Amino acid sequence: MYRFESVSKFYSGELVIDNVSLTVPRGKTTALIGPSGSGKSTLFRLMTGLAKPDAGTIYFGDQQLDDKCIGAVRKRIGYVIQEGGLFPHMTGRANVSLMAGHLGWARDKVESRILDLMKLTRLSPEVITRYPSEMSGGQRQRVSLMRALMLEADVLLLDEPLGALDPMVRAELQQDLAEIFRRLQKTVILVTHDLAEAAYFGDQIVLMGAGRIVQSGSIADIQRNPVNDFVKQFVQAQRTMLFSGAQL
Prior knowledge:
This protein has 248 residues and is α/β, with parallel strands linked by helices. It contains nine helices and ten strands. Helix 6 links the parallel strand 7 and strand 8. The C terminus is likely disordered.
């Protein structure tokens, strides 16, 4: 779905993405992971068109990602960030239906889609009428996921969506997200700092360091065949963070 060919990006003269080539397969979950400053969030911004490469080319499907197509591409992308990123002055329902209303969807189509998404995310009807400040963290994330799925996006981009949740809520939402990904067969790209979470979700794990892809593959590849000391140290540092059945 995405293809990066020799992509580099500078900020204030500093190289933050260094000659990255990467293929994100359609219908699979790719987890981007690495320490702070490794470049994973910048790579994410490049995928959304919020940042532009200074060198190299990015493709969305067979289409080169540029100013001419980014508006159309964004309608095919659903975006979920940490703590949901909901508009605080709008109810959950208004947040979810915002873009559909902007695009002129008929009322009955909007309502039908919201009902389907409430069932999918296991969100009760009363919660969707609340404002974000009246919701729990897990409820806000479910509403944010509904908003991302409202336009039936081809790609879901999740930027540390579970990082601010307490462990019990996080474990429950992990299970629900994994089931949703399985049912919908969407292309999912997940940014996380947690290797256990990457292992739980990721068909492909991309470990980044200093703006480069250090190693990519399955969790078994990264655990059993680390390509260098950085990978060994990264895995070892996270061994105590096992949860939700992920085995590192």
